[in-house]
Amino acid sequence: MRKRWRAGVVAVAALGLGLGAVVYTQGASAASWPSATSTVKVTASKPISGTVDGGLKRYVGSGALGSGSQDEGQDPLFVLADGAVLKNVIIGSPAADGIHCKGSCTIQNVWWENVGEDAATFKGGSGAKYTVTGGGAKSADDKVFQHNGGGTLTISNFQVSDFGKLYRSCGNCSTQYKRAVVVKNVTVTAPGKSIVGINTNYGDTATLSGITITGDSKKKISICDRFTGNKTGKEPTKTGSGPDGTYCKYTTANITYK
């Protein structure tokens, strides 16, 4: 679950990321996926600072970054500096390790057509604030969003389908934090394993509202799983699931099945 990144030497000005593109938005219901305006091959991790608008170009990785499998240690396509905003981007396959946020960041209207190792990894300190708004992710064999650093991640107006876990607070990182995740107005389409997983022994919290789940008549997708995390690299121990008012904060009224 622990990640590394190797910064590329490509300057932001050379990324092929245009400014002023039309923002693609969606509401709580699943929206149609956007069509790519063009395709860009990424051969080295691209550093992003300030606000960068991708103009709905599709970015695909190369073998130098990783295969887009579940192999650990793949490099990201994008590395966001503290305070960076990346918007209107489609990430194709292979996606390697997606996006890394080194501090607070905003990911807006980003669409993962086939999640690689992870869609995005959040690596800031205890005061970091991360925002994922709009967009969606498909075909994640394991995690979509991996929270390795501290701080709070807010996921809103997002859609996910065919996935393992939408969010996981790192269960075995060598440095652990108290983490928080807020998930609201998100559409989930089966198959999937769990929406969030948190570590209660570090004081993690998950707050969920406006969750719509489709194609899961037997309610196999777990809403909130609780674990005892560790710093040793061992697999964390699962201790429970469901709302408890302290760590997993939601009620049945916050979850709609269709």
UniProtKB/TrEMBL annotation:
Alphabetic keyword roster = Calcium, Lyase, Secreted, Signal
Question: Which Gene3D superfamilies does the UniProt entry name for this protein?
Answer: Single-stranded right-handed beta-helix, Pectin lyase-like
The superkingdom of the source organism is: Bacteria
The record's subcellular locations are:
Secreted
The EC code for this enzyme is: 4.2.2.2
Q: Which reaction does it catalyse?
A: Eliminative cleavage of (1->4)-alpha-D-galacturonan to give oligosaccharides with 4-deoxy-alpha-D-galact-4-enuronosyl groups at their non-reducing ends
GO MF terms held by the record = pectate lyase activity
Q: Name one Pfam family in it.
A: Pectate_lyase
What cofactors does this protein use?
Answer: Ca(2+)
GO cellular component terms attached to this protein's record:
extracellular region
GO BP annotation list: pectin catabolic process
Query: Which EC class does it fall in?
Result: lyase
Describe the function of this protein.
Answer: Catalyzes the depolymerization of both polygalacturonate and pectins of methyl esterification degree from 22 to 89%, with an endo mode of action. In contrast to the majority of pectate lyases, displays high activity on highly methylated pectins.
State the similarity comment: Belongs to the polysaccharide lyase 3 family.
Kindly provide the name given to this protein in its UniProt entry.
Answer: Pectate lyase
Q: What is the lineage of its organism?
A: Bacteria, Bacillati, Actinomycetota, Actinomycetes, Micromonosporales
